[in-house]
Amino acid sequence: MRVSAARLEDVGRRLENLPVVRLVSQTVGQHELIMAVWFKDLREVQRLEQTLNILLSGVGHQRPFVSTEHRQADGSDTG
């Protein structure tokens, strides 16, 4: 997710309080923040995007890039 340097700490704090978020990390490159999330169901991706739009309104973020990997409860890959 692209976030201005002045807002990184604030956005990171907002993200780390979401129940599905497991990791928020600052990076260098095309995206300044990355986050790892765990969903029980892939339909939760849309709910997260809606939450991010509300939570980060006015922050000047760009729509996050979402990449998914689906795993079973035992941790094995389903793909």
Short note summarizing the structure:
The chain is α+β, with helices and mostly antiparallel strands and 79 residues long. It has helices spanning 8-16, 44-55; strands at residues 21-26, 33-37.
Structural account:
The protein contains two helices and two strands; from the N terminus they run αββα. It has 79 residues and is of the alpha+beta class. The protein has a domain at 5-55: Lrp/AsnC effector binding domain/regulation of amino acid metabolism (RAM) domain (Alpha-Beta Plaits, 2-Layer Sandwich), CATH 3.30.70.920. It is globular. The mean pLDDT is 79.
Features:
Alpha-Beta Plaits, alpha+beta, about 15% strand, about 80 residues, two-stranded antiparallel sheet, 2 helices
Intertermini distance: 26 Å
Strand composition percent? 5-15%
- CATH topology heading of one domain: Alpha-Beta Plaits
Q: What are the segments in which pLDDT stays under 50 over at least 5 consecutive residues?
A: none
Structure summary, number of beta strands: 2
Give the SSE string: HEEH
Helix content: 25-40%
User: If helices are DSSP runs of H or I spanning 4 or more residues, what is the number of helices?
Assistant: 2
Indicate the mean pLDDT.
Answer: 79
CATH homologous superfamily descriptor of one domain: Lrp/AsnC effector binding domain/regulation of amino acid metabolism (RAM) domain
Strand order within the widest beta sheet:
1-2
Q: Biggest β-sheet: count, sense, barrel?
A: 2 strands, antiparallel
Structural class computed from helices and strand pairing:
alpha+beta
CATH architecture of one domain: 2-Layer Sandwich
